[in-house]
Design brief:
The complex is a heterodimer of chains A (230) and B (248). Chain A is an all-alpha fold and 230 residues long. Chain A has one domain. Helix content of chain A is 74%, strand content 0%. Chain A starts with a helix and ends in an 8-residue tail after the last helix. Chain B folds into two domains: 155 residues, P-loop containing nucleotide triphosphate hydrolases (Rossmann fold, 3-Layer(aba) Sandwich); 72 residues, no CATH class. Chain B is built from nine helices and nine strands. The chains are: A mainly alpha (230), B alpha/beta (248). Chains A and B meet through helix 2, helix 4 and helix 7 of A and helix 2, strand 5, helix 3 and helix 4 of B.
């Protein structure tokens, strides 16, 4: 054996040791997401969504639980009013320049920030839908009210995400979603004479869908690649 | 050539930040010098594919970043340290670098070793499991450099990478740059003329959106000889002389 063959590359050996010592083992949710999305990067981005972290989800559950108690106590379907607001806040905090400290760096990645936004927003929306439906079922309100908030929730989520993206601030987006929903409830109460009109009037379905479509279009436009970070 | 720019322009409103830059670059370290507002950061953002040009043509690694599939391929082979990097305070050093390695679509099996190597190259081995919120500004800068080099990029764009580094780590970084420049095209924007002299094989000087000088550091030094331009070092005098000439 000559000197060259016998020489050990200590840096390489150490890198191998350090890799084993520092290696992070993805959790079961991240592994499953990685398989479903076919992208470990997207999966990692998904499990680090601020509004999917345990604390946030627990806070959402507490707010909905308060809605259940209020609904049972008064007979007014507060869950239907609370669920869209909770979801809108969660969506605003799912992704975007307002909450991603490393947004500019993220814009230079092979996994596009628009894809990260889409996956995170869908996951937050899905989770909030499940939580809201469970809360509605637990509060024992009529079926029309149980599902009546789903369409306005879609609209408020799209509004919150659009404003958060344009304003580059999750807080502003969340405020816009919540304020938009409160204004809608109060305005419909004023015109229809019922507090529940915002979630029971079928004539509002089209306007809600229009808001949802407009919000989605704004988000797609604002996150198109050619916009960059300018 | 890894970088080919033709009449590249970027405007913000009516104000041109980059005005008709034409340049090519192959492997090696290119220092991008210029005063504040010269257009260095805008040029680097376009090179890093995070901002499109208003007009002109960019080709990176013989690909068109305007095409989404080709842009994705470029981004897999690219490293970027923006001027304001931004960090996730709750992430550890390793988690942060690993996250961006995943977003660069590195093969998952290669990532642990690549992350470990990147952490060691920037001298942060003893802080590998520290939360980013506990690190100093200079250490965070090194974390930023580590995420940029984790994928052994063919294109590396660094915007003021030595800001906040102490002299020891600045020297280490220059050595790292020279090493990376053996294989990759490295473009470093800096205010520090001594960084250019120590680490860059070529230098481009920008002023008011235009490239007003391209050459070697020695050629830039030559431009200052015999002139009354301001500067404590020969390279600084060359820098000042070229700027004065460009503005006259």
């Amino acid at each position: 054996m000559n000197d060259e063959e016998g020489r050990v590359d200590l840096d390489r050996v150490w890198a191998g040791v350090a890799a084993q010592v520092w290696r992070r083992t993805p959790g079961s949710v991240e592994r499953t997401a990685g398989r479903l999305l076919r992208s470990p990067g997207l999966a990692r981005a998904l499990v680090t969504t601020p509004s999917l972290l345990l604390g946030w989800v627990a806070a959402s559950a507490v707010v909905l639980a308060a809605g259940i108690l209020a609904t049972r106590g008064t007979g007014t379907p507060y869950v239907a009013f609370v669920a869209p607001a909770v979801a809108a806040a969660g969506i605003a905090y799912s992704y975007g320049p307002g909450i991603d400290d490393a947004w500019e760096l993220s814009c230079s990645m092979a996994v596009s920030n628009r894809m990260v936004l889409l996956v995170r927003a869908l996951a937050v929306f899905g989770l909030n839908t499940v939580l809201g439906l469970a809360a509605s079922a637990a509060s024992g309100v009529a079926l029309t009210v149980t599902f009546g908030w789903l369409v306005p929730m879609t609209a408020m989520c799209a509004l919150a995400l659009a404003v958060a993206t344009l304003a580059r601030s999750a807080s502003v987006g969340a405020a816009a979603g919540v304020a938009g929903w409160i204004i809608t409830i109060l305005a419909r109460q004023e015109t229809a004479g019922r507090l529940t009109a915002a979630v029971t009037d079928s004539m509002l379905t089209l306007p809600y869908l229009a808001v949802a479509a407009a919000g989605a279009a704004v988000v797609l436009f604002a996150t198109r690649t050619s916009r960059g970070t300018s | 050539m890894n970088i080919e720019l033709t009449d590249l322009t970027r405007k913000f409103g009516r104000t041109p930040a980059v005005a008709g830059v034409t340049m090519t670059a192959g492997a090696g370290v290119l220092g991008l010098l210029g005063p504040n507002g010269a257009g260095k950061t805008s040029l680097l953002r376009m090179l890093a594919t995070v901002m499109p040009p208003s007009s002109g043509r960019i080709r990176l690694l013989d690909r068109d970043p305007g095409d989404s599939a080709q842009r994705r391929e470029i981004r897999r082979r690219l490293g970027y340290v923006p001027q304001n990097l931004g960090y996730y305070p709750g992430f550890t050093v390793v988690e942060f670098i690993e996250y961006f390695a995943l977003l660069k679509e590195m093969p998952a099996a290669d990532i642990p070793r690549a992350v470990a190597a990147a952490v060691e190259r920037v001298g942060l081995g003893d802080k590998a499991r520290a939360k980013l919120r506990t690190l100093s500004g200079g250490m965070l800068r090194r974390v930023g450099i580590a995420q940029a080099i984790v994928n052994e990029p063919e294109l590396l764009f660094l915007d003021e990478p030595t800001a906040g580094l102490d002299p020891e780590h600045r020297m280490m970084f220059r050595s790292l740059l020279r090493d990376l420049g053996q294989r990759a095209t490295v473009v470093v924007s800096t205010h520090l003329v001594e960084d250019v002299g120590a680490a860059c094989a070529r230098v481009a000087l920008m002023d008011r959106g235009r490239i007003v000088f391209q050459g070697t550091p020695d050629e830039l030094t030559d431009r200052g000889e015999g002139s009354t331009a301001a500067g404590d070092a020969p390279l600084e005098r060359g820098y000042s002389a070229v700027l004065a000439q460009a503005r006259s």
